[in-house]
Amino acid sequence: MKYFSKFALSLCLIVLSLNANAANTIHFATEATYAPLVYLDKNGSISGFEAEIVRALCATLKDTTCELKHQGWDSLIPSLKLGKIDAIFGGLAITEERKNQVAFTKPLYASSVGYIIPSDKPITFDDEGLMDKVVGVQLGTTMEHYFHEQYPNVEMKAYASLQDALLDIQTGRIDTVLGDAPVLLAWMKGKPADKYRIVEIPKDQIDYFGPGNAIAVNQKNTALLNELNTAIDTITKNGKLAEISAKYLPKAENTK
What we know:
The chain is α/β, with parallel strands linked by helices. The protein folds into 2 domains: about 120 residues, Periplasmic binding protein-like II (D-Maltodextrin-Binding Protein, domain 2); about 100 residues, D-Maltodextrin-Binding Protein, domain 2 (3-Layer(aba) Sandwich), CATH 3.40.190. Helix content is about 40%, strand content about 20%. The strands form 3 sheets. Strands 5-1-6-13-7 form a 5-stranded mixed β-sheet, sandwiched between helices. The protein has a 5-stranded mixed β-sheet with strand order 10-9-11-8-12, with helices on both faces. α2 runs antiparallel to α9.
């Protein structure tokens, strides 16, 4: 009887160990300050368009759970390269510079980039129109690199977060903010009607931001990359991606 109890206990431990190993956890990270793309809801949970996409992707993966973590933008790629997390997302444009550091999945959606300006202070986006103007961007983003290259002689102010830049346009400290159009549109909600409008960057310049926004993984983790790409194909074919897009990214009327 005593021998059987030890044997049964050992067998249970083996089974539990096998079950634990069978369940895979993917650790995702993002900076959740980009409503409606990704943000912290009233309960402190990571929500938004891309958060729902990530969860939909994970739902297609067998024996896999996903954890979503909020951390600073500048720390995302370094953490990924060091193996502290498995994947990053949240307004992450596929660019040649980033492809030297990380591996990207297929695009989740096309880039949509624009300037937000006060409606009573029209600006033309050329060297003459931007003379004596201050343009806000988020530090370390594709928008920062784009504006610096496009308008090297125009004053640009880089912020730790896009929300800080948007606070400064409200107080008149800067004249415009360059960012992801869906994020700018979400910020405009609740503001007085017609107080702000968005001017999208020229169509012939959108290629600067790559083929779209995606999830990034460590360059060595080809297995995870393949899993996520297969999952993207699945939610594209079954209509889930289109359903989530329609929920969070409605067509804007005050964008031109």
